[in-house]
Amino acid sequence: MPLVKATITTSSPPLPPRPNNANILVGMLSSSSNISRTMKALDNGYSLAKQEKFYNGIYNATVRVLDTCDGMSSMTETLNLILNDSVDVLFGAHCTANCIATAQAANYWNIPYFPLNCFDPRLDDSTLYLTVIRFFGSLTSFGASFAAYFKRYQWENVAIMIESEADFCNSALNAIQSSLRGDMVTVAEIVQLPADISSLDASIFSKIRRSARSLCKV
């Protein structure tokens, strides 16, 4: 679907929701390397909405490329989409800092926000982020499921292995740590691994085995 430029400019909050057969303008935040993936996810959602007869109109998308991961840049681009492009809905953002900033702006301006790659447990607070529609389940519940499993088998020590510089892994780690420590489980070791572990020194697993009863790979 071709990308279009918005022509409407406003300095006030968006209008009330439109009928389900009206055209909508989607504001999309994406890194340059993820534009095609984000557009595919958007198209898949649109096709499903048409199939289920939730929405019978068409949509256009205006895209803001954001290759930095900091809240200020994301807030700037989000406000450009809301105030200058007059979008009806927000979609995307590719890291936690960007997602949190966009969610705050979307909540203030009462704009629906679909965060595509956002895993931070703070977004679980539906009293704070009223307009966020999560693609993925709550990582708070994800962490709690680990705690329940450990309690069932009475495991008290764990080592956690995560992929370094991966946003999902960092957020999942925080959720798991919080739940395990709340249940008095000791996180004996946190090991950050590269994405390619084919040449990893096997001695690291021996070291982990000495310090922990079980191993989680996130």
Written overview of the protein:
With 218 residues, this protein is of the alpha/beta class. The chain folds into two domains: 24-124, 3-Layer(aba) Sandwich (Rossmann fold); 139-217, Rossmann fold (3-Layer(aba) Sandwich), CATH 3.40.50.2300. It has helices at 35-51, 71-84, 96-109, 139-153, 167-182, 203-211; strands at 24-30, 59-65, 89-92, 113-114, 157-163, 186-193, 214-217. It has a four-stranded parallel β-sheet, with helices on both faces. The chain has a three-stranded parallel β-sheet with strand order 6-5-7, sandwiched between helices. Helix 2 packs parallel to helix 3 and helix 4 (139-153) packs across helix 5. The longest helix has 17 residues, at 35-51. It is elongated.
Write the layout of secondary structure elements.
Layout: E1 24-30, H1 35-51, E2 59-65, H2 71-84, E3 89-92, H3 96-109, E4 113-114, H4 139-153, E5 157-163, H5 167-182, E6 186-193, H6 203-211, E7 214-217
Parallel strand pairs: 1-2, 1-3, 3-4, 5-6, 5-7
Subcellular location: Membrane
Protein name: Receptor ligand binding region domain-containing protein
Domain Receptor ligand binding region: 54-210
